[in-house]
Amino acid sequence: MGSALIAAFAGWADSVAQQADPLAGAPVLERPIDCLASPGGRCWIQTFMDHDLEDGVSDSYCGSRTDNRSNRFGQAHQGLDIGPLDWAAWDTDIRVLAAAAGTVRGTRDGLADAQVTKDGRDALEPQACGNGVRIDHGGGWQTMYCHLKQGSVSVSQGQRVEAGQPLGLVGSSGLSSFPHLHFQVMRQEGTDDPATRRLIPYDPYTGAALTEPCVVRRRPLWSAAALRDLPYTHLHIIKFGFAGQAPNFQNLLKDLRPMDSFTPKEGQPLYAFAYTAGTAPGDTIKLHVEDGRGRTLLSGTLPLKKRAGRHWAAADVTQGRSFKRLKTAEGAWPDGPYRLVVSVVDSSRDGVEEASTLLELNPAP
Predict the structure, then answer these.
(1) What Pfam family is a match, any one (predicted)?
(2) Closest CA to 263 of 354, 195, 130, 363
(3) CB neighbours (10 Å) of residue 6?
């Protein structure tokens, strides 16, 4: 058999093998960001891949934790958005890391970090990724890292990088309204000729292509450690706890954090709150607060009526009837520590996400 025929046969065999296993040659991906999105971590997964190419949404596991983006695949969000809990956490400089070894195919830097509104979207569409890095891992596989902080990109085109190597910092450049990393996995179909080349996004959680329905399951592209650090949850409690000021959407995004301790004062409010993702109309958020003796101070349920990517609930513990009754009877704030239990109930799947925390009461001045 001639060498040309052998080469042709080998090429045909490789093509058939790739069709049989679209994940052939795929790299094992490590965590692309230097923070955890698991419970207690300082980051969270804002948006998963959307496998519904029309007007609806369908994330990696057929849930609603994704959204629509206008692009060449219709309305589908093509990757994974991971970011800090709020703007204050972004100020600590969170590193973006190479998910696997490869060669830098291209970079961009110099675009300002911003909070883009609807009015500014069209102007930024050509530079939607913002400051970014693209890495070629061989075998047609590439990863892309978008919205990096201005001036932070630390690699250059043609440079060889290893898994875990810093590429830059999380930012809000390009088409971004909040600091985050947009991470995208792609496999190239066709040749390097731009006329025939096509990059197909793949879901790192299931191994399904963006163009396939969410029920397709192959195998994760993530390593076991990355799956542990970046878990999928249908419902997610972003942050929760007690606060001395009234929570609202603006301060939850900016810098509101739960307190570990509190000094009771006459007339001082004490809010219990929860900030959630993956919730939808018909779901409920329940806040239940007990004192140090297990007595109920506040118990309330908020039914969610509006469709939104995130919801929040808050209540002033000191305005609850049970709190007022105990305070009047005992002549002081009920004993601590106070315990808050947050329960988020998914009406469509009968799922429940729960979390709890304690607040220590300091001696009154």
Answers:
(1) Peptidase_M23
(2) 363
(3) 10
Instruction: Summarize pLDDT for 258-303 with one digit per residue, the tens.
Output: 999 999 988 899 999 999 988 888 899 999 999 999 999 999 999 9
Q: Both tokens of residue 89?
A: 């956490």
Residue 111 contacts residue 160 (beta carbons within 8 Å): no
Q: Which CATH architecture has domain 236-361?
A: Sandwich (2.60)
Domain locations in the chain? Answer: 26-229, 236-361
DSSP H or E stretch at residue 137: strand 131-138
Q: Top-level CATH class of 26-229? A: mainly beta
Is residue 103 within 8 A of residue 35, CB to CB? The reply is: no
pLDDT of residue 52: 82
Q: Output the six-digit token pair for 216.
A: 């397709």
**One-character DSSP codes across 278-311:** S--TT-EEEEEEE-TTS-EEEEEEEE--S--SEE
Q: Which residues 6+ apart lie within 8 Å of 361 measured at CB?
A: 261, 262, 263, 264, 292, 333, 335, 336, 337, 338
In the DSSP assignment, the letter for residue 125 is: G
The pLDDT tens digits for 60-110 are: 888 877 776 644 444 568 899 999 988 887 778 899 999 999 999 999 999
Question: How many distinct helices (H) and strands (E) make up the chain?
Answer: 6, 20
* Burial class for 63, CB neighbours closer than 10 Å (0-12, 13-18, 19+): buried
How much of the chain, in percent, has pLDDT values that exceed 70? Answer: 87
- Taking the C-alpha atoms of residue 45 and residue 203, their distance in angstroms, rounded to an integer, is 14
**C-beta separation of 3 from 190 below 8 A:** no
